[in-house]
Amino acid sequence: QKRLLENYKGRESVTKSGKKIHVFANIGSVSDVAYVLENDAEGIGLFRSEFLYLGRSGLPDENEQFNAYRQVLQMMAGKKVVIRTLDIGADKNVDYLGLGQEDNPAMGYRAIRICLEQPDIFKTQLRALLRAAKYGNLAIMYPMIISVEEVKSIGEIVKEVARELDEEKVPYTIPEQGVMVETPAAVMMSEELAELVDFFSIGTNDLTQYTLAIDRQNSKLDRFYNPHHEAVLRMIQKTIDGAHKHGKWVGICGELGADTALTERFVQMGIDELSVAPSMVLPVRSKICEME
Ligand code: PEP
Ligand code: MG
């Protein structure tokens, strides 16, 4: 099995009839890049930037972030790297932000909501990302989006950051930008959202949680948490159709993207990219290469 999978290294992920899918990998730290390269992923489809913020006593400054992002971009040597902006709150708490206790943290003050509410934190991350974009093939992705208004506000903030960098004569590039589709609201608004962004990445972990109204952390509900639920699959189809209507690419970066029982279905649905744990890159590629 392992030897067979080795044969898929250095190959494209393309079906027998010639449909090419990008198989990327998910990572949560700079050191994970070694596994991405070892498993021959075509890029990084989800880099969870939380690692910079968790397990410490204060916010990481711009240069610390810039150095981490640049390092990953350079190690990936021109391959695409999708970095997700801060997605804390809910299960990932950080004391120094004083977020406090909430009755419904999964539906609470988290991710892009914190960034839009506390733009200084967001702008520091964006400055680091725009500066790092000069060193490789970066894309930025925003989590927990529910509306067109949020995407427009993000656009304004990015413009402001770019203007400030211009004034300071600091070199930067504005990279490709996309949103995570992980709320039913984003699915329902996918056509409108697609007009404003370069790509979508479907976060099936949260999308399943919010579609089925089942806490993804509550193990008592494991038998009800079914990401194969037809409602979830239809959400995925609607998102793909919304993106393609405006010529944008769409991927899956939640756990479901690595479920090889569904790979063929995703390809039939029109998915462009699957971003999976590094160890699942070759199994997913072999599945794609074996299908019509
Ligand atoms: C998801 O929700 O599917 C996702 C990829 O993000 P996270 O698991 O980090 O919430
Ligand atoms: Mg999520």
TrEMBL record:
Needed cofactors: Mg(2+)
Keyword Ribonucleoprotein annotated: no
Broad enzyme group: transferase
EC number in record: 2.7.3.9
Subcellular localization, as worded in the UniProt entry: Cytoplasm
Catalytic activity, as annotated: L-histidyl-[protein] + phosphoenolpyruvate = N(pros)-phospho-L-histidyl-[protein] + pyruvate
Keywords: Coiled coil, Cytoplasm, Kinase, Magnesium, Metal-binding, Phosphotransferase system, Sugar transport, Transferase, Transport
GO molecular function terms attached to this record: phosphoenolpyruvate-protein phosphotransferase activity
Signal peptide: none
Protein's UniProt keywords contain Cell inner membrane: no
Main location: cytoplasm
Residue stretches making up the PEP-utilising enzyme C-terminal domain: 7-290
Function: General (non sugar-specific) component of the phosphoenolpyruvate-dependent sugar phosphotransferase system (sugar PTS). This major carbohydrate active-transport system catalyzes the phosphorylation of incoming sugar substrates concomitantly with their translocation across the cell membrane. Enzyme I transfers the phosphoryl group from phosphoenolpyruvate (PEP) to the phosphoryl carrier protein (HPr).
Protein family per UniProt: Belongs to the PEP-utilizing enzyme family.
Name of the protein this chain belongs to: Phosphoenolpyruvate-protein phosphotransferase
Gene that this polypeptide is encoded by: ptsP
